[in-house]
Amino acid sequence: MYRNFFKRLIDIIISITGLILTAVIMLVVALAVKIESPGEVIFRQKRIGKNGKVFDIYKFRSMCKNAEKTGSGVYSDKNDSRVTKVGKFIRATSLDELPQLVNILKGDMSLIGPRPPLTYHPWPYEEYTEHQKKMFAVRPGITGWAQVHGRKQVEWHKRIELNVWYVEHVSFLLDLKILFMTVFKVFTNADNENVGATLQKDNVEEKETTDVSN
Q1: Beta strand pairing status for 197-201 and 204-207?
Q2: N or C: the chain end with fewer CB closer than 10 Å?
Q3: Of 97, 119, 133, 150, which is closest to residue 45 (Cα–Cα)?
Q4: Any residues with CB less than 8 A from the CB of 193 and at least 6 apart, and which?
């Protein structure tokens, strides 16, 4: 009952309340992003959602325009020159994630759930095993079980296992626990930097992107 009804009801209430309470903050962030560098204020990106459905995730843009086509491509680290000054701040404070309240209201996402991966990273939806695809049985979240257990420092296979575990044990108390753990990590900025390879598949290692895979 919680997973299929009350979780969605709570998401709607929280997203509407959150949009109202953070309206001024989002306006200030939007103006800061626009003033510092040319380009769209909102960064849109294709992600894999519930049941493998692809949707556009929203974030405040934290990098210069067309950043993925320049420099080191889609890969980014804490010293990436493509990240703007405003971008560094909103990433560190997770303010760049606020537009995802709209994703929640639309039904693309939930407050708590597995973070939605890119359509091609760590690999296409078709290449996930049936066991791994269990992580797509619920709406993806702004934060989740994997995020409070290492966030960007967790290798993708382990991250997926954490997501599958969440889906198999989802409950109101578990979501509440994740929420409190997330608040602590945001305030301490814990595990919020890319530290190295987070994907190991077929003996190939790739660095995770800050903008693209979180």
Answers
A1: antiparallel
A2: N
A3: 119
A4: 77, 78, 152
Q: How many angstroms separate the CA atoms of 201 and 4, rounded?
A: 34
Residue 75: which of 190, 204, 206 has the closest Cα?
Answer: 206
Does 201 have pLDDT greater than 50?
no
- CB burial readout 66-99, b (16+ within 10 A) else e: ebbeeeeebbbeeebebbbebbeebbeebbbbbb
Cα 85 to Cα 78: distance, rounded to the nearest angstrom = 12
Residue entry with tokens 């639309």: 106
Q: What is the pLDDT confidence band of residue 214, given thresholds at 50, 70 and 90?
A: low
Question: Dihedral sign, CA of 16, 17, 21, 22?
Answer: negative
Q: How far apart are the first and last CA of the chain?
A: 29
pTM equals 0.84
**Residues 6+ positions from 25 with CB-CB distance below 8 Å:** 95, 98
Helices (H), the chain: 7-21, 23-36, 85-92, 100-106, 156-169, 172-188
* pLDDT value for 173: 97
Quote the distance between the C-alpha of residue 30 and its chain's center.
19
Share of the chain above pLDDT 70, in %: 80
Q: For residue 196, which of 187, 204, 205 has the smallest C-alpha distance?
A: 205
Question: Which H helix or E strand runs over 69?
Answer: none
| Cα distance between residue 109 and residue 186, in whole Å | 20
